[in-house]
Structures are given as structure tokens and as C-alpha cells.
Amino acid sequence: MSLFTKVAAKKVEAPKAKAKGTPWLAGDPNGDAIAKSVKALVALDGEVKAIEAKMGLHKTVVKKYAEERYVRDFASRGVNPETPLYVQTSDGEKVTFIVQDRSGQYGVRAEQKDALIDLVGEDAANGLLYEEAKFGFNRDLLAIEGVKDVIGAALETALQQLLDSNLLSAEQAEQLLEVDTKTAFKPGTLDRMALIVGKDTTRMKQLLEIMGSSATRYIKV
Q: How many CB atoms neighbour CB 199 within 10 A?
């Protein structure tokens, strides 16, 4: 069994992380400005969720109607209805019905395949599905000094063996290894921030700004 076969057959579930956190007490919401804002954010978030729930009910009704019209138009024309697709009232108010083909992006579950076989038959179902395996290297381990050199040398040897055995042509061998080259911060940079810039808040802020999306920051209520 090859290394890639073993990796594909073995799915390791990451251990569940214990709940952690660092609470910062703002104070009494009746007198502290920060605490007042926290209280207001929580209250407003509740209102937003209530509105989203109401919208969800109406979206379900409209979506059912739109799907019916969509398949009806598709069946009558034999092609996808021209987009954008709208559900519109007599006075001009409208919402958009979005349909996007994202085939290949998500896995097909066993029950989905069974249902597809029931619908179109096994041969036709197999013709609609394909298996894809993507292999990659552990980024943290690949960043260890010297690991990339050893892996690279091994891959060069493997490619040469493929050429010598005529399993691949020289042109095919060049295309076998797909590389997405980019410059990135090493894993763990954020954890080592104090070692990198010292315990200087100004320099830490500067480093965070430089890292940008590599050190994502946002407020979530």
C-alpha cells in the first residue's frame, strides 16, 4: 500500500479543544460606557436574529413558489431559464431567486447516491459522479527546517522512476506536481509575537497591521 493510499484511508479526527477564554470585565452597564455598549450590542443582536427568523419564514414561502416556476420554465424550454430570476409583485417589488451550479465543490453522501440510483439507474448515476482525491502536506511539518528538502528530493526520485518505466512522458511528469506558490507567514507567528517584537504594544499593533488577514480580527456578538 502506497503512502498516499494509507493517508487517504486514514482520517484522523482532531481532538476537541477545551473551552478557553480571557474575560475582560467592563463594569456596571448603568455607569460604564464600555459595558453599556456591550449590553446594547447583545440586545441589538437579539433583534437582528428575530428579524432574520421572520425573514426566513417568508423566504421559505417564496422559495417554494420560485422553485416550482424554475423547474416549470426549465422543462418547457429545455434550457436553464435566463437569469436573473425574479419573483415580483404587481406593484414592482421583487426578490431574486439565485441558482448556482457548484458541482464538484461538495461531497456526495451515500444516501444521496442511493437516491440518484433510484432516480436514474446505477449506470447513469455512475456517469454523473466522479471521485477526486487531493493530497497535500502538513503545513506545520513542512515548515520545519530541512523537511521540504527531503520531500523534494524524494519527489524528484519518484518522477525519474515514472519516466524510466515509461509510465509518464517528460511533458506529463512536469505537469504531475501542481504547485501554488505564495509567500506567507510561518505557522505560529502570532503566538511568537512577543518574542518577535518584544513586549511593546506599539510594535505589536504594527505587526498585527502588517500581518493583515494572516491575523484576522473582528467583533462577533
A: 9
E strand intervals along the chain: 85-88, 94-97
| 154, 142 contact by CB (below 8 A) | no
Q: Can you tell me the distance from the alpha carbon of 13 to that of 126, in angstroms, rounded to the nearest whole number?
A: 29
Q: The whole model's pTM is what?
A: 0.63
Cα atoms found within 13 Å of the Cα of residue 62, Cβ hemisphere only: 17
Q: Which of these, 48, 13, 31, 98, lies nearest to 221 by C-alpha position?
A: 48
Measured distance CA(150)–CA(176) in Å, rounded: 18
Cβ-Cβ contacts under 8 Å for 46 (sequence gap 6 or more): none
The whole-angstrom separation of Cα 65 and Cα 190 is 49
Q: How far is the C-alpha of 14 from the C-alpha of 27, rounded, in Å?
A: 37
Q: Give the span between the Cα atoms of 59 and 66, in whole angstroms.
A: 10
Q: Which three cell numbers stand for residue 85?
A: 430570476
Find, among 133, 101, 129, the residue nearest to 117 by Cα: 129
Q: Report domain extents, the chain.
A: 29-100, 103-132, 137-179, 188-221
Residue pLDDT, tens place only, 34-47: 999 999 999 999 99
* Backbone φ and ψ of 84, nearest 5°: -75, 155
Which pLDDT tens digit goes with each residue over 133-181?
777 888 889 889 999 899 989 989 999 999 999 999 989 888 887 777 7
